[in-house]
Amino acid sequence: MALMETEDIMKILPHRYPMLLVDKIVECDNKERIVGIKNLTMNELIFQGHFPEHPVMPGVLQIEAMAQTAGVLLSTLLKREAAIAYFLSIDNAKFRRVLKPGDQMRIEVQLLKIKLGMSKVHGKVMCDGELACEADLMFAYRDA
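Above: the chain sequence. Below: its structure as tokens.
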């Protein structure tokens, strides 16, 4: 059961297709942890040009999916739905498994700290119980 569907997420995030990379939120403790889902399908534009003979989800978009999932959590926590999160840093990014059409990304984000208008999270993308990628992300929030 989803806690938030795509329409709910679009009320929080400014992203729209094809850059909205979270389909639904399935877990959220409203404190420090959130889990989102992204279903990868062949009819997404990215797969038409990213290795068309062997389509794979770009690592940078996996990181973006983590950032968007974190954005849902942080906007909810900070009560700043009109704010936009801007990347400050991406650290310790590691890619461990190829993701392709038909896969489901389980995007897990853990809040590490919030201080002085900035936040740091650790994100993971899981697929079929395996770690696909992980990274530490830092953001600054600014009003839209």
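The two ends are 31 Å apart (CA to CA).
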